[in-house]
């Protein structure tokens, strides 16, 4: 969302910046999840033992799906314009929902 509100340039560049920001977040999320599981293993703690863990993992998995579908439909579009127009509302809705889910977990 930040790329569309703060970067004053052509739409294609905004989309690319949006993609890169979310790709960076996804990679950092993978690194963070790896670190948590590694820490739990070293400390002999159980993994995924709380509701917070399960909601966080669900949020991250949904974020990954959002990124893959967004990349497939909007950056590397094979879908028709009418399909992309219909999916844009859902992409924005679920993007905001995932942002709120991630912020509430922090």
TrEMBL record:
Extent of the signal sequence: none
GO cellular component terms, semicolon-separated: membrane
Transmembrane segments: 16-37, 49-76
Keyword set includes Ribosomal protein: no
PROSITE patterns per the UniProt record, alphabetical: CYTOCHROME_B561
Cofactor(s) it depends on: heme b
Entry protein name: Cytochrome b561 domain-containing protein
Species this chain originates from: Tetracentron sinense
């Amino acid at each position: 969302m930040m790329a569309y509100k703060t970067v004053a340039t052509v739409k294609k560049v905004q989309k690319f910046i949006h993609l890169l920001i979310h790709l960076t977040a996804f990679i950092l999320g993978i690194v963070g999840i790896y670190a948590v599981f590694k820490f739990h293993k070293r400390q002999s703690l159980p993994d995924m033992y709380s509701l917070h863990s399960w909601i966080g993992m669900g949020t991250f998995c949904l974020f990954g799906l959002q990124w893959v579908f967004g990349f497939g439909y909007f950056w590397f579009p094979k879908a028709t314009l009418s399909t992309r127009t219909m999916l844009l509302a859902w992409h924005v809705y679920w993007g905001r929902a995932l942002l709120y889910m991630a912020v509430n977990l922090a």
